Amino acid sequence: MTSVVLEGYGLTKRFGPATALAGVGLAIGRGEAVAIMGPSGSGKSTLLHCLAGIMKPDEGEVRLLGQRVDTMGERERSALRRTRFGFVFQFGQLLPELPADENVALPLMLGGVSRRDAVRRAREWFGPLGLGGMEERRPGELSGGQAQRVAIARALVTRPAVVFADEPTGALDQTTGHDTMRLLVEATRGGDASLVVVTHDPQVARWCDRTVEVRDGRIMTGVGA
Amino acid sequence: MRAALGLGWRLLRAGGRKGLLGAALTALAVTVSTALLLFAVSANLAFEGRGDREAWRNPVPAQGRAVAVQSVRVDYVRDERITVVELAALEPGAPPPPGLDRFPAPGEVWLSPALAELARRLPADQLAGRFAGGRGGTVGDEALVHPGELVAVRGWAPDSPVLAGKGTDEPRGEVAPTRISDFTGEPTPDAQGYRILALIASVLMAVPLLVFGGAAARLTVARRDQRLAALRLVGATPGQVVAMTAAEAVITAFAGAVAGTLLYVLLIPPLTGIEIAGGSWFAADLWPGVPYTLAVLAAVPLLVGLSAVVGLRRVVVGPLGVAKRETPPGMRFVRVAVLLAVLAVVPTLSVGSGGGMIAVVLGLAFLSINLAGPWVVGLIGRITAGTARGPARLLAGRRLVDDPRAAWRTVSGVALTGFVAGFVVLLNPSADLLGEADASRLRLSVPAARADAVAAGARERLTAAGVRAGTEITGEGGEKVLVVALGGGRAAAPGKSGKGEKADTPVDALVDAPVDARVDAALVDRARTALDGLVPGRRATSTADDDRFGHVLIGDIGTGTIVVLTVSFLVAVVSAGITAVSSVLDRRQTYALLRLAGTPLQVLDRARRAETLIPLAVMGGGSIAVGLFCALPFAITGLDAGGLATLLACVLLGFAGVVGAGAASAPVLRSVTENPAPRPD
User: Residue B254 has what pLDDT?
Assistant: First the structure.
């Protein structure tokens, strides 16, 4: 494995009496694409949320390039998510009020980049992702696949270390889903970022370097692609 | 239809914790609206009631056989007005006047409770001496304008000089001896004037309330439109969607309307303390009665339901419009054109225009501001988004463009209050208009033939009462005026110092004395009491007495302004608070996603503030200007320092209220972004 970018040790997370994660450990290498698979309720999304600093594990550690994430306060984790992570989700990840290019530019603007530069840099992603001419369309005027590609551009525009994708093709038909995954993996690799994909679809997982399977809050296997 | 209604009820119940919170917010908005609407309705009925209770003192001359003679005189004590009704029966069995259980016999005096109490408390030579005679009883509430009103009813023989003669040029509030067939009377011009002012105040209060109620209804729709659009997509007919929405809105609004009625009942006791036209209110005045209450209870939910249905238009016409979040169609300029058309009518109005006409134009101006508001907000949004450099202003600007109606809902209350403030400050005359009247010179109309004898009698009475005063007869023709100039302190009793003729001090010498040191109220009341009955049917009054109604009216306009502005601000701030919380609930997924992507809460809060304050600044300022413009035809004076201070206070209160309301919704924002993991709801 190449150098580790993100790793979690002994991650445990409980929701009331239910244990979502029971001492999970996972390491993600630089530029690596990892699929996390498992049935509904297995804990795969919880694992992603813990790794991404969205929620704190009850036990265990998360480190990004050696730096503890799980001990950070909400403000620091927010800053980390804004600058070092990118996100692609199944539902509603675009702001309906903003046109596509401003949706992509928003993370840059939140990081202090001027609007003009942010939009210019955002638009650079539109051509490679097959979105040329759609810069000023609003999310409601895009197809599902186009909206996911805009979300991919937004996830990558800050040049993050890791991109997290939760069921990124869950709302798309098979052909569009494959196209989207191809673009996600290629663009992530092109940006020298790692990719963590949560999915229950083996066809999606096939695009990744390896697959880990989660059941009942535990990692069952680690399979190379 | 039954199934649709049932589904609507299920949607309401199954909305989850946040859905129920949204419904509760709608109900709260309707509660406040209903309570204030009942207040606006009651205020009109209360003034009508006052007018009716006072009507018997404004007699209509008998067309047929007269049963009594009635005159009304105005007297004063301690700057308070006393209404003295003089009555004489022309035949046995004359009906008793309102508030009395029988017709007063000659020589009998009936006093209102407040006057009786005052007569008991003050020295007899200052008040009670004026109402000598047998006490017939107490004037009942049904004959009084307000609980503290000072009213005396005196019985006389038909041939008494008090009820003789025909008055010419009667002072305000007085009525010359009139032969009457009953005590029906008619409302006084003052009462009618107050009713017009109350109607205008009600319009100023009610229109924002209706707008607010409509906004509350749309809150329900805003939360539900996604779900209802989904229902349309699976084949629900427009009628079914409308029925479901209406059912949900009406059920919520009815609960709010009932709560609002209870709230209003609880508010009645403190509201009775608002003093208008010289006094407070009977609790019964402010209870609108069962029919009006039922009408409000029925009308409010129906209006809310109707408003909700209108808000559903997009879902019903095209479900994908909501489901896909396409670019909303732009607002049409016709909205602004309507406002301009209404404003074009305003300069044609004048003080002489009917009260109803003024109320209609005001209401239309109000409604057209509400119509133009979203268009202007959309324009502001485009400018804000176009010039934004940071994410907060960009988000705010795009949000304004995306849903200008929602943004307008947040600021409309305060903007409409700006209109009210602009309108009323120009109509608030200053007491300076009346100047400083002279309370030290009492004037008494006297027949020219008896002028000298009356003057001598006056001097004698004043000296006996120990009042130092000078007298002078002025005027031409058959009626002359005895002027009594009062000086400070008590004159020495005649004979004791040999200077009892002090009462003959020339008027000019006393008049030249400094105004503020001239007299005190007790001295004036002793003089009035001493002069009472000197000329039958006449009271000694001063120019300060003449101005007293003006002072009361100016005070009342000030009180009315405060009441209207208080109601408007209450509506505005509650409206801003509710829409702010509702906006957070509606957009919780968006906020959660922004938080997930690392957006600091401060940026979200800044965006929300900009989204509110930018349109507020523009629309608030614009509404004040429109209000000032609408008031111009009726303006008595220009905008003075007091008016400017009121306007400034309104602007500050408006901004503070909206900022405060936004801040109050911050915990809700924190709550919905606490766990930013995305949910498909």
Answer: 92
Domain ranges of chain A: 4-218
Lowest mean pLDDT across A60-64, A146-150, B326-330: B326-330
Annotate A134-176 with DSSP letters as a single string.
Answer: -TT--GGGS-HHHHHHHHHHHHHTT--SEEEEESTTTTS-HHH
B181-185, B540-544, B621-625: least confident range? B540-544
Q: Give the distance between the most distant pair of CA atoms in chain A.
A: 51
Cβ atoms of B454 and B445 within 8 Å: the answer is no
Q: Give the type of residue at A164.
A: F
Interchain CB distance below 8 Å, B391 and A75: no
Q: What is the ipTM of this complex?
A: 0.80
Of residues B336, B63, B597, the one with CA closest to residue A82: B597
Measured over the CA atoms of residue B275, residue B279, residue B284 and residue B285, the dihedral's sign is: negative
Burial class (CB in 10 A: 0-12, 13-18, 19+), A37: buried
Nearest partner of B406 among B578, B622, B202, B167, judged by Cα: B578
**Residues B423, B560: Cα–Cα separation, whole Å:** 13
Measured CA angle at B151 (ends B149, B156), to 5 deg: 175
**pLDDT bucket at B424, cuts 50 / 70 / 90:** confident
Query: CB count, 10 Å around CB of B169?
Result: 8
Establish how many alpha carbons lie within 13 A of residue B543's alpha carbon, considering only the half-sphere containing its beta carbon: 9
SS3 B482: strand
Pick the residue of B387, B389, B394 with the most A CBs within 10 A to test the interface with A by mutation. B394
Q: Which amino acid is at B392?
A: A
* Residue A12, pLDDT above cutoff 90: yes
Identity of the residue numbered B27: A
Instruction: Report the distance separating Cα B676 and Cα B670, nearest Å.
Output: 10
Dig out the tokens for B82 from the structure: 């006393």
- Which tokens is B527 given? 């003089």
**Nearest-angstrom CA–CA distance, A86 and A98:** 19
User: Could you tell me the CATH superfamily of domain A4-218?
Assistant: P-loop containing nucleotide triphosphate hydrolases (3.40.50.300)
DSSP-assigned beta bridge partners for residue B73: B84
Interface of B with A (CB under 8 A): 324-327, 388-391, 394-395, 398-399, 401-403, 589-590, 593-600, 603, 675-680
Contact across the interface for B680 and A79, Cβ inside 8 Å: no
> What pTM value is reported for the model?
0.70
Q: Which residues from A are below 8 Å from B598, CB to CB? A: 78-83, 85, 107, 110
Residue B61 has pLDDT above 70, yes or no: yes
Q: Compute the distance between CA of residue B424 and CA of residue B418 in angstroms, rounded to an integer.
A: 10
The pLDDT score that the predictor gives to residue B292 is: 94
Contact call for residues A27 and A1 (beta carbons, < 8 A): yes
Residue B317 has pLDDT above 70, yes or no: no
Q: What are A158-188's pLDDT values in tens digits?
A: 889 999 988 888 777 778 788 888 888 888 8
Structure tokens, A94 = 């675009």
Q: Chain A partners of B593 at a C-beta cutoff of 8 Å?
A: 89, 92-93, 95
Using the predicted structure, report yes or no on whether residue B133 has a pLDDT greater than 60. Answer: yes
Asked if residue B489 has pLDDT above 70, the reply is no
The residues spanned by each domain of chain B are 1-56+189-325, 59-185, 327-433+558-681, 441-541
Instruction: Tell me the C-alpha distance between A122 and A109, whole Å.
Output: 10
CB atoms within 10 A of CB B405: 18
Task: Residue B36: name the closest of B176, B205, B185 by CA.
Answer: B205
d(CA A68, CA A177): 34
Task: Read off the pLDDT of each residue in A118-122 and give the average, rounded to a whole number.
Answer: 94
User: Is the predicted pLDDT of residue B320 greater than 50, yes or no?
Assistant: no
Retrieve residue B409's tokens: 């809902």
Binary contact (A96, B395; C-beta < 8 A): no
- Distance of alpha carbon A7 from alpha carbon A3, whole angstroms: 11
